[in-house]
Amino acid sequence: MPPALPQLLTTVLTALTLGSTALAHSHLAYIIVNGKLYQGFDPRPHQANYPSRVGWSTGAVDDGFVTPANYSTPDIICHIAGTSPAGHAPVRPGDRIHVQWNGWPVGHIGPVLSYLARCESDTGCTGQNKTALRWTKIDDSSPTMQNVAGAGTQGEGTPGKRWATDVLIAANNSWQVAVPAGLPTGAYVLRNEIIALHYAARKNGAQNYPLCMNLWVDASGDNSSVAATTAAVTAGGLQMDAYDARGFYKENDPGVLVNVTAALSSYVVPGPTVAAGATPVPYAQQSPSVSTAAGTPVVVTRTSETAPYTGAMTPTVAARMKGRGYDRRG
């Protein structure tokens, strides 16, 4: 097969699936770390979801969203009925994680946000009580909305604007998240979220898509080994915070109740500020994800030890590992 053909197949698959998913919203299909792919969760009925996944399950069978009216409920933490799996994707401080969304509709403009929370049990994040998680924001997709003179737009009625979601779409619906340097060894939940603002001019019109993945951070050789679960604890270069997700946003926040069709000069990102020491990946370095092998998730056997997950690989992951590239459906 010519070297260019896998990329061509990817492009064709993306084009073919765009029409069928443009109105279907989205979920996190998988993540890729150093070329290795780890399975997310597909909430749609009749989809195969196996125990080897690292993505939290949800009850959003329509690939739908959480409304501002539910910001104070557990649904905003890791989506509707979010439940943690057994698997964790192994990463190291300084790694970049490609978060692959199952497509994103043009016109659903808004910020892309990322948070981390530590899990402290002997099983890591397996069966984690989500209401007990305390979060640190590590990326707010700044500047989220850019004024681009003379440019077109993928938004609605905002000529000359470029949003974080436009950058995500251009990167084949993926977003890179940097694992902060100095992060201590342990189990964490990565929460990646898009807030779609196309109906946000009206109360309860914003659409939040908060979705979670389990990580195992291996900081072998790193001197930062302290638990980082309380506010203002410094782990290497990252200052950990302790925010409850149910307090991230309010219905009337200027970044939630906002008319994106108006002549905006700037956009106020909702939620906490990015923690000191976090290193968001800039727009210029966002790029499509590429997988080269199936990753082996781990299970946590003690707070400082893991073992390879021995369950079956999902058919979707196995198919992607045959040199055919990846598709946007997950």
Indicate the overall shape.
globular
Rg, nearest Å: 19 Å
CATH topology: Coagulation Factor XIII, Chain A, domain 1
Structural domains: how many: 1
Overall pLDDT score: 83
Number of strands: 16
Look at the helices and sheets and give the structural class.
alpha+beta
Strand order of the largest sheet: 9-4-1-2-14
Distance between the termini: 24 Å
Q: What portion of residues belong to β-strands? A: 15-25%
Secondary-structure element sequence? HEEHEEEEEEHEEEEEEEEH
Low-confidence blocks of residues: 1-24, 152-157, 221-235, 313-330
Largest sheet: 5 strands, mixed
CATH architecture: Distorted Sandwich
Fraction in helix: 10-25%
- Total number of helical segments? 4
What's the CATH class label? Answer: Mainly Beta
Subcellular location: Secreted
Family: Belongs to the polysaccharide monooxygenase AA9 family.
Organism: Thermothielavioides terrestris (strain ATCC 38088 / NRRL 8126)
Main location: secreted
Keywords:
globular, 4 helices, five-stranded mixed β-sheet, 330 residues, single chain, alpha+beta, disordered C terminus, Coagulation Factor XIII, Chain A, domain 1
Quick synopsis:
The chain is of the alpha+beta class. It has helices at 5-21, 75-78, 164-170, 315-320; strands at residues 28-33, 36-39, 89-91, 96-101, 112-119, 135-139, 145-147, 161-163, 174-178, 186-196, 207-217, 233-235, 238-240, 293-294, 298-302, 305-308.
